[in-house]
Amino acid sequence: MAAAQAHSYEVALFGEFFAKDLSAILNRITLHSESAHRMHAREVVFEPFDASHQRETGSEPVLLRARKEMLEPNPKWMLYSYLKPESVRINPEATVRPCALCQVVGDALSFASALGYVRRSQIYKRGYVFRRGMLVIQMFQQEQADPTTQKPIPAHADTLWEVEVKTATPFRTQDTPMKTAIDAVLEVQLLMKGLLDLRRQDV
Fold first, then answer.
1. What's one GO BP annotation on this UniProt entry (predicted)?
2. Does residue 203 fall inside a structural domain?
3. So what's the pLDDT on residue 202?
């Protein structure tokens, strides 16, 4: 059963770095954040059952993602989906994309199947989450799932770290001006300059 739902926007910047730079980047982000905690999330990606047909006819299927934070005492599944990012001509500095989000009570994977989606892939993300005003900053390494047990396989020490700086919750432009959200992520880009290259991503 689905709970609250919102249709609005997310603004984001992305980056990646080598493990040797972890300490310096962790320190700088921590210094400019209000709070921090560890994260270990499971993410399952679904695509429409007719995704192949959609691609053959020239349209990109909208993927559905299920996410659950494994370290929370009573973790709940969140379902979210992104539409195509706005053109670089409209917002050249950051990724701005319409998104929909809802919390699912019960088995989100069965719920996604009932909506006509099939599982495409699964990963785990282990790292840290920071809060900074209206933003959430996730810094993590990806872990693959064991095909037999579905449990996470620890990432290799040399696995790249990924960073996502984004608005913590989807927002409507009548409540939060787009410029306010873009300026917030660009401020983090400036704070990390010389240490971490944060940029827009169009996928």
1. regulation of transcription by RNA polymerase II
2. no
3. 75
Domain count, the chain: 1
Kind of pairing between the strands at 35-48 and 64-69? antiparallel
Residue 72 lies in a domain: yes
What pLDDT, in 10s, does the model give residues 31-45?
A: 999 999 999 999 999
Instruction: Answer yes or no: is 199 within a domain.
Output: no
User: What letter represents residue 26's amino acid?
Assistant: L
Give the domain CATH number at 66: 2.40.320.10
Structural domain of 32: 2-191
pTM of the model: 0.89
Taking only the tens place, the pLDDT of each residue in 109-121 is 899 999 899 999 9
Given the structure tokens 């810094």, which residue do they identify? Answer: 139
Place of tokens 């088995």: 107
Q: What is the pLDDT of residue 7?
A: 57
